[in-house]
């Protein structure tokens, strides 16, 4: 072996051992952690986790170690929560003590603890409170946002008509619609669907979702202090984050030049006005850097999650055309063909509402949620979990809990319908997570999914070139997110 290579490997081994010893010393004597598999030196339990399907392997471990168990992922100890009861007890019953964000190195490098997704403490509280208030003021869950979504749904229909009933890959078209909605809220902009800059931004977000769901990123997050200097897709993800930040910073600069405090146009204007109000406060959280990161968080989350759910949902409807047929019947009965769907229709359309909920449950888009962290030493069941311990709530184990859903492995809209065919809610439905860290844009995303799905099916019949029984709806990745396979379909106008 080359002497320099041997020295490098020895150095890496020494550093890894020091980091592991540091982690052990930090937690030694501080708590009685839940049981778990015996970790190997340096690498911990990473070999016992299938990096290509993390949710499934964690659920398998839960069968042996129980609904609350401990893993050593590299140098970091994490506590895993499995099943509705454990997740609810932590995130809802003890919500404030499980409210911090866990360690996410691939996000942290480009955000430096800023924004609404990975921030903690007082910074997170202030930015989240401001974001919720501002989104509500601009109509999240109210009429003005509904009108924006309805208008965007019309643009989407026009773009789909341009396919002329021919086979097409719906990925970018379905990404454009939710992206334009969040753009209208953050930048007060509407992009044409063929705009190169617009398509480039969507490409960045989609590319990062794929990278973040890859096995390599799970390794990177466990050994970031070492893996950061190795070649790998994490460099591409970080670069994409930086490119998105550059785009948003340009928008912020333009807003600074044209700001009218008497007439705020969008989220950026409101944030700039808040910065002006707090300019005399030396420790204000309202800075340009925090604005860029927060807007980036809202932009990426508001685009990718909704567009992926739409894309996956249409694939499922191709698989089960009889379900799509029942939605068509309900649309004809409640809405007809002469007006746009509105959010008030949702209460009159229990079957369609149930199908959309079942799509979100079945797709299980973010299967292990984003990691949490405990804000203080906490007695949880018979264990004492030390402050700062990373918590992984397995949302898959909630969405596929047979106590909450009779046939969890099957796609069945009946999971959200009672005996009389009326829509019924379920406490086991957590696609936006739960507790203090529940998604900021939940109500807007729910509105978009209903209006986009109903508008598409009001105007088109979906046709696959593949026989429905041969359509595979298994995810092609199951890491950070579950991603649908690529597919083509025809949008046949009525």
TrEMBL record:
<keyword id="KW-0349">Heme</keyword>
<keyword id="KW-0560">Oxidoreductase</keyword>
<keyword id="KW-0408">Iron</keyword>
<dbReference type="GO" id="GO:0006805">
    <property type="term" value="P:xenobiotic metabolic process"/>
</dbReference>
<dbReference type="Pfam" id="PF00067">
    <property type="entry name" value="p450"/>
</dbReference>
<comment type="similarity">
    <text>Belongs to the cytochrome P450 family.</text>
</comment>
<dbReference type="InterPro" id="IPR001128">
    <property type="entry name" value="Cyt_P450"/>
</dbReference>
<keyword id="KW-0732">Signal</keyword>
<dbReference type="InterPro" id="IPR050182">
    <property type="entry name" value="Cytochrome_P450_fam2"/>
</dbReference>
<keyword id="KW-0479">Metal-binding</keyword>
<protein>
    <recommendedName>
        <fullName>unspecific monooxygenase</fullName>
        <ecNumber>1.14.14.1</ecNumber>
    </recommendedName>
</protein>
<dbReference type="GO" id="GO:0005506">
    <property type="term" value="F:iron ion binding"/>
</dbReference>
<keyword id="KW-0256">Endoplasmic reticulum</keyword>
<keyword id="KW-0503">Monooxygenase</keyword>
<dbReference type="InterPro" id="IPR002401">
    <property type="entry name" value="Cyt_P450_E_grp-I"/>
</dbReference>
<keyword id="KW-0492">Microsome</keyword>
<dbReference type="GO" id="GO:0016712">
    <property type="term" value="F:oxidoreductase activity, acting on paired donors, with incorporation or reduction of molecular oxygen, reduced flavin or flavoprotein as one donor, and incorporation of one atom of oxygen"/>
</dbReference>
<dbReference type="InterPro" id="IPR017972">
    <property type="entry name" value="Cyt_P450_CS"/>
</dbReference>
<keyword id="KW-0472">Membrane</keyword>
<dbReference type="GO" id="GO:0020037">
    <property type="term" value="F:heme binding"/>
</dbReference>
<feature type="signal peptide">
    <location>
        <begin position="1"/>
        <end position="23"/>
    </location>
</feature>
<dbReference type="InterPro" id="IPR036396">
    <property type="entry name" value="Cyt_P450_sf"/>
</dbReference>
<dbReference type="GO" id="GO:0005789">
    <property type="term" value="C:endoplasmic reticulum membrane"/>
</dbReference>
<dbReference type="GO" id="GO:0006082">
    <property type="term" value="P:organic acid metabolic process"/>
</dbReference>
<feature type="binding site" description="axial binding residue">
    <location>
        <position position="439"/>
    </location>
    <ligand>
        <name>heme</name>
    </ligand>
</feature>
């Amino acid at each position: 072996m080359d002497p320099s290579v041997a020295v490098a490997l020895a150095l890496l081994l020494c550093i890894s051992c020091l980091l592991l010893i540091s982690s052990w010393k930090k937690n030694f004597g501080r708590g009685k952690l839940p049981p778990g598999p015996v970790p190997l030196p340096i690498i911990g339990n990473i070999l016992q986790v299938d990096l290509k399907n993390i949710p499934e392997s964690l659920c398998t471990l839960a069968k042996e170690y129980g609904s609350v168990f401990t893993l050593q992922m590299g140098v970091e100890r994490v506590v895993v929560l499995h099943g509705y009861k454990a997740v609810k007890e932590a995130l809802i019953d003890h919500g404030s003590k499980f409210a911090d964000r866990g360690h996410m190195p691939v996000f942290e490098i480009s955000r430096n603890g800023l924004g609404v997704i990975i921030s903690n403490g007082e910074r997170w509280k202030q930015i989240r409170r401001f974001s919720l208030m501002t989104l509500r003021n601009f109509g999240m869950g109210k009429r003005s946002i509904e009108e924006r979504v309805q208008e965007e749904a019309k643009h989407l229909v026009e773009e789909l008509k341009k396919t002329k009933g021919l086979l097409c890959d719906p990925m970018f078209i379905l990404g454009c619609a939710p992206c334009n909605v969040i753009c209208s809220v953050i930048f007060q902009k509407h992009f044409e669907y063929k705009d190169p800059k617009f398509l480039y931004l969507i490409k960045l977000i989609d590319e990062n979702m794929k990278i973040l769901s890859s096995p390599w990123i799970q390794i990177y997050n466990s050994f970031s202090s070492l893996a950061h200097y190795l070649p790998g897709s994490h460099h591409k993800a970080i670069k994409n984050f930086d490119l998105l930040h550059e785009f948003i910073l340009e928008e912020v600069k333009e807003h600074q030049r044209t700001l009218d405090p008497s007439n705020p146009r969008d989220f950026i204007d409101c944030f700039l006005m808040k910065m002006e109000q707090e300019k005399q406060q030396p420790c204000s959280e309202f800075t340009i850097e925090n604005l860029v990161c927060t807007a980036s968080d809202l932009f990426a989350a508001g685009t990718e999650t909704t567009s992926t759910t739409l894309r996956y949902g249409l694939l499922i409807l191709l698989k089960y055309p009889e379900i799509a047929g029942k939605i068509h019947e309900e649309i004809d009965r409640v809405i007809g063909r002469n007006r746009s769907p509105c959010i008030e229709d949702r209460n009159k359309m229990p079957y369609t509402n149930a199908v959309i909920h079942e799509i979100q449950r079945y797709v299980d888009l973010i299967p292990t949620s984003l990691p949490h962290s405990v804000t203080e030493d906490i007695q949880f069941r018979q264990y004492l979990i030390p402050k700062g311990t990373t918590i992984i709530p397995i949302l898959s184990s909630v969405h596929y809990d047979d106590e909450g859903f009779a046939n969890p492995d099957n796609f069945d809209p009946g999971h959200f319908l009672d005996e009389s065919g009326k829509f019924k809610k379920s406490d086991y439905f957590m696609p936006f997570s739960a507790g203090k860290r529940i998604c900021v844009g939940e109500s807007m995303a729910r509105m978009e999914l209903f209006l986009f799905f109903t508008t598409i099916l009001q105007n088109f019949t979906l046709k696959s070139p593949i026989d429905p029984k041969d359509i595979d709806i298994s995810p092609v990745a199951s890491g950070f997110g579950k991603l649908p396979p690529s597919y083509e379909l025809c949008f046949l106008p009525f």
